[in-house]
Amino acid sequence: MSFERPSDPTALPEWADAVAFEKKVAAADWACRESRLDGVANAAANDLQKFTTTNTARIARVADGWKAMPSLAQTLRATVKTTPVK
């Protein structure tokens, strides 16, 4: 794969097999975890609440960063298109 020009990994001949494999692995993973979901969530609830209370400002900054990503990506694309390669 070259990073010198835009690439589309979905155009690679291996793409469909890779997607099928990932879906198969995800299904197997879920089959192992599904029955334990409620127990894990309940066991973690107090720790998660403490974490979110302790890190409210940090979590908000991360959320704001994710919200800004589309705009930042668009700006980066525009910059890359107009910046000559040296």
Secondary-structure blueprint:
Blueprint: H1 15-33, H2 37-54, H3 56-82
Give an overview in words:
The protein has 3 helices and no strands. 0% of the residues are buried. The model has no long low-confidence stretch (mean pLDDT 89).
Low-confidence stretches: none
Helix-and-strand structural type:
mainly alpha
Computed CA radius of gyration, to the nearest angstrom: 21 Å
Largest sheet: none
Elements, N to C (H/E): HHH
The percentage of residues in β strands lies in under 5%
Total number of helices: 3
Descriptive labels:
86 residues, single chain, mainly alpha
Short description:
The chain has 86 residues and is an all-alpha fold. It contains three helices and no strands.
